[in-house]
Every structure is written in C-alpha cells, then in structure tokens.
Structure to design on (226 residues):
C-alpha cells in the first residue's frame, strides 16, 4: 500500500520540550515538504528537501529543524524555541515530473499543554 | 508584494447548483495552477492541474479555467452535492524543482441539501 505515513496522529507536549514528528513515504519521491496549518491560515511551508542530505528553509522555519538522511524519511523537530507550536502539521511529497502534484500525509495534530 | 487570494473563506450553495470558487494572484508568474480538496482533519488531495497555455480543463463535474492576463483561476463544481462540502485550495506551480508551490488559504464550501 503506497503512500505517506505520519505519526503520531495526535501529540501533546509540555512547554519547553522538543518533539519530533515522523514522516515516511514509499512513493520513491525525491522531494518532501513540511507544512503547518492553523485555522484560517492555509498551508505555510516550514522546510523542504529536494534530495537526500539537503534541505531548505521555508517561510516559517524558525523554531523547527529537519533532517533528510534517507529518501523515505523526513522527520520534523519542533523545538522549545517555537513560541506557538500548537497546530496541524502536514507532510507532503512530489515526484515533480511529469507534474508537480503533491501527495499529503494524514497529518499530526500537536497540542502544547 | 506577492499575494495569492481565494475569494472568500466560506461559500454556501444549494444542492444541484454550480459552485464557483476564485483564486487570484499578484506579482507571480506561475506556469501551472493546481486545485486541491481538503476534508476536516485530513491532508489535501490533488484534484486538477491547468497549464498557463490552457484556457480550460475538465474532470467529471469539475471545471477549471486559467486566465494569465487577469491572474485568475476559476474552479467550478456543477450539479453540486452535499458530498462536495470541503475546503478547496488553489496552489501556484512554477514548474521549477527549486520553487515550492504557493498555496492559497482555501475556501470552505458547504452544499446544502
């Protein structure tokens, strides 16, 4: 069953703690993306990676970090420096060719207590 | 400044009517424009892509137009059904491996029986 998995579905974090969100894909896509979604805000790009061992900051990278050690995996760490981390986080991939359609995972809802 | 706007946050429509959603942008020059559907608590799902040299694209009850002079795309759902109720997102696609998609905030469509 091909696709993108994100875990966990729901995550609770205490203030001051780092937390890592998982994103795994078996679509063999090179490019992977992390978005944050808040009510009424649409999708905001956090980080993206075009290829293994390389990644770029998106529009709201402050307080987040990523790694891309394997093609299949693109974990996102929400650090204590992120002032307002409560949000819905979405991971996406794209093959880029022939079209740049993005495939999204089911999302992780992070709540800071 | 660069902007992408979807005409309204919410749109209510009677079952059987045609729903029309608008996506406007300024100071961008996308090669393609994409439309996605997002249900509550889930990731977006790709619906349609239209190229800058295409005026119109159809898929079943969906129709998309793209006017690069007006910098506008219209998304139509004909014979709308309650099952079409969702948030619809437009995305600017620059067809460049180095440039991520730019998403609008979405329009929440409610089809009333």
């Amino acid at each position: 069953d091909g696709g993108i998995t994100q875990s966990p579905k729901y995550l609770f974090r205490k203030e001051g703690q780092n937390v890592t969100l998982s994103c795994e894909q078996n679509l063999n896509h090179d490019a992977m993306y992390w978005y944050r979604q808040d009510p009424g805000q649409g999708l905001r790009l956090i980080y993206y990676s075009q290829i293994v061992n390389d990644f770029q900051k998106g529009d709201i990278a402050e307080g987040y970090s990523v790694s891309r050690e394997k093609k299949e995996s693109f974990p996102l760490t929400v650090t204590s420096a992120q002032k307002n981390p409560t949000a819905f986080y979405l991971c996406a991939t794209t093959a880029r060719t022939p079209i740049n359609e993005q495939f999204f995972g089911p999302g992780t809802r992070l709540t800071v207590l | 400044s660069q902007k992408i706007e979807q005409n309204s946050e919410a749109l209510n429509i009677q079952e059987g009517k045609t729903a029309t959603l608008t996506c406007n942008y300024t100071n961008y020059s996308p090669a393609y424009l994409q439309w996605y559907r997002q249900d509550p608590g889930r990731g977006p799902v790709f619906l349609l892509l239209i190229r800058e040299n295409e005026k119109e694209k159809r898929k079943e009850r969906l129709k998309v137009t793209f006017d690069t002079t007006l910098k506008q795309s219209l998304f139509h759902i004909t014979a709308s059904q309650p099952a079409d109720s969702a948030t619809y997102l437009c995305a600017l696609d620059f067809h460049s491996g180095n440039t991520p998609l730019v998403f609008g905030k979405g329009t929440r469509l409610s089809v009333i029986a």
